[in-house]
Amino acid sequence: MTNDDPVVDDGLQTVRLSVNGTRRTVAVPAHRTLLDGLREEVGLPGTKSCCAEGECGACTVLLDGKAVNSCLVLCVEAEGHEVTTVEGLSADGLTDLQEEFLNAGAVQCGFCIPGQVVSAEYLLRTNPSPDEAEIREALSGNLCRCAGYQRIVRAVQATAVRRGAAQ
Amino acid sequence: MPKYYRPTTRADALAALAEGGAGARPLVGGTDLLVGLRHHTLEPDLLVDLKAVTDLPEPIAVDDEGMRFGATCTLGELVEHPVVREWYPALVEAALTVGSVAIRNRASLVANSCNASPAADTAPPLLVHGARVTIASLDGDRTAALDDFFLGPRRTLCGPGELVTRIELPRPAPGSGAAFRRLTRRRGVDLATVSVAAGVGPDGALVLGMGAVGPRPLRAEVPGPVDLDDEASLAPALDRLLAAATPISDVRGSREYRLATLRVLTTRAVRTAASRRNPREMAS
Q: How far does the CA of residue A128 sit from the closest CA of chain B (Å)?
C-alpha cells in the first residue's frame, strides 16, 4: 500500500493539509478527529477539547475559511484543505478581536475563548457589522460555563466598531 | 475501526457501498456520524466520503418546476440561497434551528433525512412540501416520496449498497404558505422536544409535518377550506391532523407535555403559514 492508496487498512493514513498557512503532513488512523490531529500531531493546543461531540464549540476552527467543529471532522477529511486555528488568527500577536475580549473582561476561566474567538472572527468576516441578535446567533454553538456571554457580545460589538472605523 | 475511502466518481462510491454492504456508511458532514463513532453506537467497517465525488448532483439546482438538493448540500448553503428563502421559508426556519453555525457549515440536508431521527429538524418542512428522494445503487436509480422513505427510528428505504443522491421539492403552489415551529430546552445545539411544519394551500387545505412525536417524522393533511379564524372549523381540523402523533416520554419532555405543546405550536405554525400566503394568488 502506498500513501496514495485511498483505502486505509488498520494502519495509519498520511494526510497532507495546510495549517495556519504552513503545509503539514501527519499520519493518523482513519478515526482520528481533526481536533486530536491538530493538538497531538501538529502540536497546536490552542484548539480546545471539551465535549468532543459538537455541543460546546471549544474546538471551533476555520476549514477553508468556514467555522466548523474540529471534533466532528476526521483528520483524513482535511486532506488537501486549509485549516486555521486560533494560533493562526494571532500569528502576529493579539488580534483586535482578542484585544477587545480583554478590554471587555470577556475572558474568565478562558477555556472556551479560543472557540469563541474563532467563531466571532468567522462572523465578522462574513458579516462585518452584526447586530446583537446576529452575534448571539453566531455564538450560540459556543458555550461558556463561566456565563460570560454579555461581555463576549460586547467584545464582538467593539471589534466591529473598531474595524468599521479603521476602514 | 473503520477504513476511510474517498472516491472521486459516483460509480466508485456506489461500488464501495455495494461491496461494504451493511458495514459501509456514506460520509458527508459527519455531524451525526462522528458522534456515533465516538459513542460506539455506530461501528461501520468503511466510511465512504462523498465530498470529493465530482459527478454527484450539484448541491443546489433550481428551475421553474422546483429545486433539487444534492447529497453534499450543507444546511449553511441551503439557508443562504435566495430562492430557497423565497420558496421554502419553513425549510429555512427548520435548518436554522439545527445545531449551530459550525454544525450547519458541515451538516447535509439529505443526510438529515437519511439518518431518519424522529426529531430530524428538516424533515417536517420537506414532508409538507412533498419532497421526493432519489436512491441510487449499482442497479440504477429509483425515486420515492419522503413520506414513504421513513420506515421507523433510524430506518429508511435506503438499504445496504444504496445512496440517496438528492432530494427534490416541487415549487410551492401560488397562494400557499408554510412555516416551522420548534420547542427545545435551550436555544442552540439541542434536539427538538417537539417540532412542526405547517402548510396552508391556496384553497385553505392544511398539511403538517411533525417531528419528535412519533417513531419517525410524520405527515398529515386535511382538505380545505379550513377557516382559521373560526374555532369551530379549526379545532376539528387540528384534531384530525394531530391524531397521528404518538409521542413518548423521555428526557426532553413527557408524552402529555409533547401533545399539549404540539397543539400550541401547530396553531402558531398554521397561522404564520396562512399569513405568508399572497392574497392575490389565493382561491376565492
A: 16
For residue A66, list chain B residues with Cβ-Cβ distance below 8 A: 76, 105
Distance CA A15, CA A78 (A): 7
User: B-contacting residues of A 14-53, CB under 8 Å?
Assistant: 29-31, 33, 52-53
Residue for cell digits 394551500? B201
> pTM of the predicted model, to two decimals?
0.94
> What residue ranges do the domains of chain B occupy?
3-49, 60-170, 177-278
> What is the residue whose three cell numbers read 430562492?
B83
What the block records as the C-alpha cell of B281 is: 394568488
Q: Are residues A84 and A19 in the same domain?
A: yes
**A143 found inside a domain:** yes
The beta-carbon neighbor of A9 closest among B3, B7, B102 is B3
Residue A129's domain spans which residues? Answer: 96-166
Please work out, in degrees rounded to the nearest 5, the angle formed at the alpha carbon of residue B78 by the alpha carbons of B77 and B79.
95
pLDDT tens-digit readout, B229-265: 888 999 999 999 999 999 999 989 999 999 999 999 9
Q: Which three three-digit cell numbers place residue A97?
A: 478581536
For residues A119 and A83, state if they share a domain: no
Neighbour count for residue B41 (Cβ, 10 Å): 10
Q: Does CATH number 3.40.30.10 belong to domain B60-170?
A: no
Q: Does A61 touch chain B (CB under 8 A)?
A: no
Total domains in the fold of chain A: 2
Pairs of residues, one from chain A and one from chain B, whose beta carbons lie less than 8 Å apart: 99
Q: Which are the contacts of B120, defined by CB distance < 8 A and separation ≥ 6? A: B112, B113, B211, B217
* Fold classified for B177-278: Enolase-like; domain 1 (3.30.390)
User: Who among B30, B99, B188 is closest to A74 (CB)?
Assistant: B30
Q: What is the CATH classification number for the domain harbouring A25?
A: 3.10.20.30
pLDDT tens digits, one per residue of A112-147: 999 999 999 999 999 999 999 999 999 999 999 998
Whether residue A30 and residue B1 make contact (CB cut-off 8 A), yes or no, is yes
Q: How far apart are CA B79 and CA B99, in angstroms?
A: 13
A47 contacts A29 by C-beta, under 8 angstroms: no
Bond prior to B170 in cis (omega within 30° of 0): no
Tell me whether residues A140 and B38 touch, CB distance under 8 A. Answer: no
Q: A7 in a domain, yes or no?
A: no
Q: What is the dihedral of CA B130, B136, B139, B141, to 10 degrees?
A: 40
Helices (H), chain B: 10-20, 33-39, 75-80, 82-87, 89-96, 101-104, 109-114, 123-128, 146-149, 231-242, 255-275
